[in-house]
Amino acid sequence: MASQKVDLKVVLLGKEYGGKTSLVERFLYSRFNSTIPYQNTIGAAFGAKSMTVQGKSVTLGLWDTAGSERYEAMSRIYYRGAKAAVVCFDLTDRSSWERAKFWVDEVRLHEPTCKVYLCGTKLDLVDEKNRPIDYYDTKDFAELANLKSFETSSKTGENIDELFNQIVSDYLDLQPATLNMKHENRGHHINKLTQNNLQVLVDQDIVKIEQKTQDDKCCF
């Protein structure tokens, strides 16, 4: 597999079945699987995509983490060193929103320099006249916590590009004016993963990936 650099590590966090995997699938591959239910992620799945924002090319490395509470400790491995965290919650599930607030606090405690974004998912399923999670509850929380928030639909693609464009723009705004994204020493070297080999990582596989990419200085 060809070597690729990750300039911006992004981790997705949130309750299981909260729409994280669908969000990644839509962003990376412009697809939505409406026929086969997604399996609960074990460990984390990884994918990468390059974007051009403000005239600069930035490669994002996305870590889609397990949402189950029993994998909380493992999730901390993946958001270590992340520049951005997307905390996802299902707009049709109140418990998913309560869990999102936990993840916001968790990231800020363990990775205080990581920029956090709130992302409501499954917007296409929301009945505006009877929302399980009030729009202003999330907006008020985001404002008090100084977070940018988005409501997205992986089915329609609504606001997904806007979310990741905002993440990259904020990242670039924090870089020196002389930043050269093509500099050979910038970024984490990783092996390029395509839509056909997006991997679900469990403990044993993490070891294998480190061994396979040792020469590429893989890190996460």
From TrEMBL:
Enzyme nomenclature, EC number: 3.6.5.2
Organism: Hydra vulgaris (Hydra)
Bilayer topology: Lipid-anchor
Protein task: The small GTPases Rab are key regulators of intracellular membrane trafficking, from the formation of transport vesicles to their fusion with membranes. Rabs cycle between an inactive GDP-bound form and an active GTP-bound form that is able to recruit to membranes different sets of downstream effectors directly responsible for vesicle formation, movement, tethering and fusion. RAB24 is an atypical RAB protein that presents low GTPase activity and thereby exists predominantly in the GTP-bound active state. RAB24 is required for the clearance of late autophagic vacuoles under basal conditions.
Similarity comment: Belongs to the small GTPase superfamily. Rab family.
Protein's cellular compartments: Cytoplasm, Cytoskeleton, Spindle; Cytoplasm, Cytosol; Cytoplasm, Perinuclear region; Cytoplasmic vesicle, Autophagosome membrane
Annotated GO CC locations: autophagosome membrane; cytoplasmic vesicle; cytosol; perinuclear region of cytoplasm; spindle
Keyword annotations of the record: Autophagy, Cytoplasm, Cytoplasmic vesicle, Cytoskeleton, GTP-binding, Hydrolase, Lipoprotein, Magnesium, Membrane, Metal-binding, Nucleotide-binding, Phosphoprotein, Prenylation, Protein transport, Transport
Molecular-function GO terms, alphabetical: G protein activity; GTP binding; metal ion binding
NCBIfam families: small_GTP
Binding partners and assembly: Interacts with ZFYVE20. Does not interact with the GDP dissociation inhibitors ARHGDIA and ARHGDIB.
The name this protein goes by in its record: Ras-related protein Rab-24
One Pfam family here: Ras
Annotated catalysed reactions: GTP + H2O = GDP + phosphate + H(+)
GO biological process: autophagy; protein transport
EC top class, as a word: hydrolase
Cofactor: Mg(2+)
